[in-house]
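User: Before I run my own analysis I want an independent prediction to cross-check against. Here's the chain; please return only the structure tokens and, at the end, one sentence I can use as a sanity check.
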Amino acid sequence: MLSVLVSAIAQAALALILSGFFWLGHRLIALLRKRTAEGPLSWSGLRWSPRPGRLPALFGAFVLAGALGRVGLHHGAGSLGGDTDPIAEVAGLGSLPVVLIGALLYGVLKTGFSEELFFRGVVGRRFISWFGFNVGNTLQALLFAGVHHLAFAAIGAPAIAHVLVFALVFPMSWLGGWLNDQEDSILPSWSMHAGANVGSVLATWAL
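Assistant: Structure tokens:
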């Protein structure tokens, strides 16, 4: 559990540092062009959602989606990476209450916050501002799916797992980007991402 906590805090801190670094570049360019720069939070989409009531619903729906997706991966690809699979590592913490705490740390903080801040907040919002919504949002979803393919390759997952993860991650990433764009906030996709990973951990524990 201590390892999960330290890892979650470290990854969240890294995401904040990277976001701040890129925002400083945005700030410098704005100064050189004599334009007003957004603050670091609004620039990255780290602002309160105008529709907070939908966030728990998104989280709950994607707990179920993540659990079903993990069951599908398990039956389609078997053991993804053994001891090197981070979700399996959290699922192996012990009893359900302990695993649930680990799942929340992993899903909400480590992956949900850090990856949404960077990929949907910093990268996705820039792609959309440069290329328009349809192209920019598709690019960020492809990039995020590609990162998952690299992660699956690193743990030695079978080829079928790559097909399945693309079928899961790409549409979820695209939908998250669309919801974020509607609300000018990364909270919708953060809720989705956190829920999916919590559901994945709980399904792995059950399996």
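Sanity check: The two ends are 20 Å apart (CA to CA).
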